[in-house]
Amino acid sequence: PQQWVLESIRQGEVDFGIVIDPGAATDLQCETVLSEPFLLLCREDHPFAERTSVSWQDLQHQRLVLQDYASGSRPLIDAALARFGIDANIV
Q1: What confidence score (pLDDT) does residue 47 get?
Q2: What is the mean pLDDT of each run of 10 residues along the chain (91 residues)?
Q3: How many other C-beta atoms can be found within 10 angstroms of the C-beta atom of residue 73?
Q4: What residues pair up with 89 in beta bridges, in sequence order?
Q5: Start-to-end Cα distance in the chain
Q6: In this structure, are residues 37 and 63 in contact, taking their beta carbons and an 8 Å threshold?
Q7: What does the DSSP assignment read for 27-76?
Q8: How far apart are CA 85 and CA 82, in angstroms?
Q9: Is the pTM of this model over 0.70?
């Protein structure tokens, strides 16, 4: 869906679009309107539950349930896991 929005703008079909991350859309004027951190949800008996923050490195070898690829944030999460070399068990 995100690429469809960007192409619609480029072709003049729409005047603007709202996407999670335009990536390297250097041919378009982009403005951040909202920035939110990723959140981790876990059971209250999980060791992470007692912490106020969890680093990407803490996710090494953890079992993770992630949103599907229809979500605009999934590619961003996959990229962050790869950037930090995290071998997570995505279930």
Answers
A1: 95
A2: 84 90 84 86 96 95 89 86 93 90
A3: 13
A4: 63
A5: 24
A6: no
A7: TS---------------TTSGGGG-S---TGGGTT-EE----TTSTHHHH
A8: 5
A9: no
